[in-house]
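Reviewer 2 asked us to include a model.

Predict the structure of this chain.
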Amino acid sequence: MAQQAVGLIGAGRMGLPIIGHLARKGFAVLVHDVDPAKRAAAEAKGGQWAASAGQIAGSADFILVCVGYDREVKELLGAGGALTGARSGTVIAILSTIHPRTVQELADQLRPGGIDVVDSTVCRGSWAADEGTLLSFVGGSADVVARLTPVLRTYSSDVVHTGPVGTAQVAKAANNLILWACLVADHEGLALAQRYGVDIAALRPALLTSSSANHALENWGNQTMAWAQDDMAIVGEMADDCGISLPQAGVVREICRTLKPRRYKLEEYGK
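Predicted model (structure tokens):
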């Protein structure tokens, strides 16, 4: 069987380790990033640098889109975008955290050309990307997801088919809402304990054995607030679209807006 080619657009903190996992599993990995300075790191991971996203579109069997925002995804897959020239039969997986409606619209636009667009969001953080133990949610038809799964398994220890196109974004939004709510609660709880003189280095492991255990507390110190506000903005827009009230999510979003500019220290919390 001929070696399958996987294209990856976006060699950032999540994309870069994925390149290495794909290459080690025998895929030919074609990489493009708008920042040419990423080339050396991508090649060191086993990727082949592509001069443009369009070059990947004409060569890859699967394309992973790992950019930051709705706008960037639309520029790649929307009208006149570089990836609209992909070959019939190509599967394009959007790893980016964006609005589910965006994925659905792009999938509808590219389907007549024989291009399958799915959303394949990832959870568990950058350290899980390094280890190849990400959780991948996948939204798309069962046959397309089955074709894509061997690619996802190179960097994911768990792959969950969430349903039709767009549902992986919904699953990721739920994950992010709970993640940031827990992280805020962790900081508030530990800040309160610290102000009362409790040794939080000893308290945190104990809390992980109790009903307060959560993933953010377990991975204390690994998270930043860099994407929290953007994640919660998507949650807010989705809630507005379907007419549901999420009052706690609104409060968490405002806290994330305040804390986003810095990796804050516990003793600064509440100032």
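The longest strand covers residues 156-163. The beta strands are 5-9, 28-32, 48-49, 62-65, 91-94, 116-119, 122-123, 134-139, 156-163. We have added this to the supplementary material.
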